[in-house]
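User: Here's a chain of 452 residues. Predict its fold as C-alpha cells.
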Amino acid sequence: MNNELRLNLLGRVEISRDGKPVEGFAHQKSLALLCYLAVTGRPHTRAALAGLLWGETTEANALAGLRKTLADLRRQVAPYLTITRQQVAFNQEQPYWLDVEAFERQAGEINAIQEAEITPAEVAKLSAAIDLYQGDFIAGFHVRRAPAFEEWVLLQRERLRLTALRALHVLAAHHMAQGAYPQAIEYTGRILALEPCQEEAHRQMISALALSGQREAALRQYQACCRALADEMDTAPQEETTALFQRIRDGSSPASRAPAFAQNLPCPITPLIGRERERDEIIARLRTPDCRLLTLIGPGGSGKTRLAQEIATTFTEISAQPNDLTEVYLVPLAPLQSAESLVPAIAHGIGLLFSSEGDPRQELLNYLRQKHMLLILDNFEHLLLPTDKEDNGGADLVSDILTTAADIKILVTSRARLNLQAEQLYPISGMELPLDEAGKSAEGNNAIQLFL
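Assistant: Prediction complete.
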C-alpha cells in the first residue's frame, strides 16, 4: 500500500515506509516511544509517557525529554502521530502494518483450540501466525534508565512468547497425530528453540524423528535433552524420556508399550453412565469368531467415542486368555483431513515404525498380519470419501486389513456405514427418558444422571 508504515517488532526492530527503512532517529527513546504507541494502540497522557521513559529524573526534565523525542518523531513519521497538549497516540487511520497486531489476529482464540478438533482453517491461521513470530518482542532492544518501559517490554515479550508456544504445541501435536512427521519436527524444533528445557517437547522430537526413519537423529536428540537439562536445571531426564530413548536404541518403536494397550487408551475423566447394556452387548459380539468389523453408527454427540473408550478399557481387563486379543489400540481420526493420512495415523497409534524405503501401506499390513489386536478407529465418517477414482476412501484400507490379518478385529465409530461386506452395525442413539403415569421421570434415570 502506498506510503504504508511497516513495523516489525517480533525479533529485531525494523521500521520501513514505502519499502524503505526508516532510520536516523536522534534518540533510542524515540524508537521506543513509537513502538509503545503502536503496540498499545490507544492515547496516553504526556505525564504517563514521561514517567514511562524518564522515570528516574524530575518531572520537569522528563517532560522536556518527551518534547524533544516527539519533535524527533515528527521529523520521521509525522502523519502516524496524533499529538495534542494533553495526549499522544499512534494514528491508526494512516496506512500501517504491525506484525504484533497481525500475529495476535492470526493466533485468534488459541486457548479455545483443541488439538484433536483443530480445523484446516485454524491450522492455516496458526501457521501464518508462527511465520510472523521471528523472535522475542523487540529482541536486543534496550533503553537506559527507563525501568517502567523495560518492565512493559518484558511483560509483552512473555505474553507473546506464551502465545507462540501454545500455537506451536497445537501445530506440532496436530501434525504428529496425522503422521506428518517433517512438519511435527519443524514445529517441535521451534518450541525447543524458545524453551530448550521443555522435556515434553524433547520427547515429541525424539518420537517424531524415530517415526520418520531418523533413528540416529532421535538418539542424538536424547543426548541434547540431557545436556540442556543438566546445563540449565542441573537435573536428569524423567524416566519416561529415558525409557523412550532405550526403546529406540534397542530397535523398538517409540510408541512400544508394555503391556501394548496400557498407555494407548485415554484416561476417562467421567464414569460411563447408562451404556452398560450396550457395552456388554458390543463386547460379546466382538468376541464371536464371525464378527471382524463392527461399526457403532449414530449421529454426532450420541456418545460413540466415550462408549468405544469404555469397550477398549474393558477389553484390556478381559483379554487375558492365550487365544484372546492381546493388544488394544484406539486411533482418533478426527484430526485427519483425508483418507491419505489414515495409514500413518494408524501406524502412529499402534507404535509401528516405518522403514525409510518400504511402502508404508504394505508395511502396515505385514505388521498387522502377525497381531492379535482390537483396532478401534474413532470418527471415521469423513474418511469415506475417495481420494481418487480408483479407491473407496478409507474403507479400502479397512478391507485390506481384514483380508490380510486374520486375527485383527476392527471397531469403528462413524456417522455413516462403511458399506463393506464384513461390516456389522450397532446403532447408537440418545438415551430414553421413560415417564411414569403422572408424567414424571425416575430420579435415578440414566439420562437425568448424565445430564447432571
